Amino acid sequence: MKSTENFISRATQQKTSDNQLIFEINSLQQLSENNPDYFRTPKSMDEFTIIWMIKGNGVYHIDLQSNPFHDNSILFIKPGQMHHHELIDKPVGYSISFSESFLSMESQELNSIYHTSIFKMFAVTKAISIHIETLPDMENIAEKMVKEFEDNNLFRTEILRRYFKIWLIYITRQLEGNVEWIRPTRNIEMVQQFMGLLEKNYKKQKMVSDYASMLSVTPNYLNEIIKKTTGYAAGHHIRQRIALEAKRQARYSGNCMKEIAYFLGFVDMAHFSKFFKNATGMNFTDFKKEKFVLASSF
Fold first, then answer.
1. Can you tell me the distance from the alpha carbon of 157 to that of 147, in angstroms, rounded to the nearest whole number?
2. CATH 2.60.120.280 spans which residues of the chain?
3. pLDDT class for 175, splitting at 50, 70, 90?
4. What is the DSSP letter of 204?
5. How far apart are CA 13 and CA 155, in angstroms?
């Protein structure tokens, strides 16, 4: 279904011999001026997206949850999440989108640290505010990234990658206190691997045993590790991921229950209806009639 909209036409895609590196940085002013409906139109992206609202107020909606944002807010949007914004005034800031492979480094340990940091960063569901003392440095780096992105100079990808990693460290320090302590454990790595596999396979693979097989562990062991690390067993995450997509489809696609059930790999309508009710606490028809609920007020 994805009503995926790409960023404005300056999108950059740089290829290496073994993968495709994707990185974009755009000013919020340009996005708003080039397409007045850009922010209020629901969309999903194939990349990670960070929106830094240096100046701007309004409400943002991500996957059926709504929250206010104010000046100096940073929002984290994961691939596939449906999102849009209701702006009270004209925005000033940056929108950055990137693929996970864009941050790849030669050092396997540093790769794991960055991937773990991103995993934690994008688990934040509400906007965060940046410390005032770090704002000048972060703005300076963002301006350098924009300049480098717009120029087609030699080694542009490498320079952008390094600027961006430094910029991310400022955020990570604020979220974690000190980036040095964020050392990946075997449990965290397995959670990340499981979540990655789930994101790619939830439509067809709905059993814990499916993912345990992919990870070369037993279903009981996988459930134990996932529950110990996240608080919920693997089966819970599988059901919730399917339910989330069902809700996205119900809210945004305009498809009927039969079409959504088929899209998610259900061959029995009654089975899907029962699954939806158990997973969400509502029947499909009632959910589709509901509107967004603002989680907190200004």
1. 12
2. 13-181
3. confident
4. T
5. 14
The whole-angstrom separation of Cα 117 and Cα 179 is 8
Percent of the chain at pLDDT > 90 equals 35
Query: How large is the average pLDDT for residues 109-136?
Result: 72
Closest CA to 119 of 52, 199, 53: 199
Distance, CA of 40 to CA of 31 (rounded, Å): 12
13-181: CATH, from 3.40.50.450, 2.60.120.10, 3.40.50.300, 2.60.120.280: 2.60.120.280
Q: What is the DSSP string of 181-198?
A: G----HHHHHHHHHHHHH
How confident is the model over 57-107, as pLDDT tens digits?
Answer: 889 888 878 888 888 889 999 888 888 888 888 899 999 999 877 876 544
What is the domain class of 186-294 according to CATH? mainly alpha
Q: Please say if the pLDDT value at position 179 is more than 50.
A: no
For residue 251, the model assigns a pLDDT of 84
Long-range Cβ contact pairs of 29-33 (< 8 A, separation 24 or more)? 29/90, 29/91, 29/92, 31/7, 31/95, 32/87, 32/90, 32/91
Residues of CATH 1.10.10.60 domain(s) within the chain?
Answer: 186-294
What are the CA-CA distances from residue 181 to residues 108, 138, 158, 176, 205 (Å)? 17, 22, 26, 8, 35
Residue ranges of the alpha helices (H) in the chain? 28-34, 108-121, 135-150, 156-176, 186-201, 208-214, 219-230, 234-248, 257-263, 269-280, 284-289
Which of the pair, 89 or 137, is modelled with greater confidence? 137
In tens, the pLDDT along 253-288 reads: 888 999 999 999 998 899 999 999 998 888 998 888
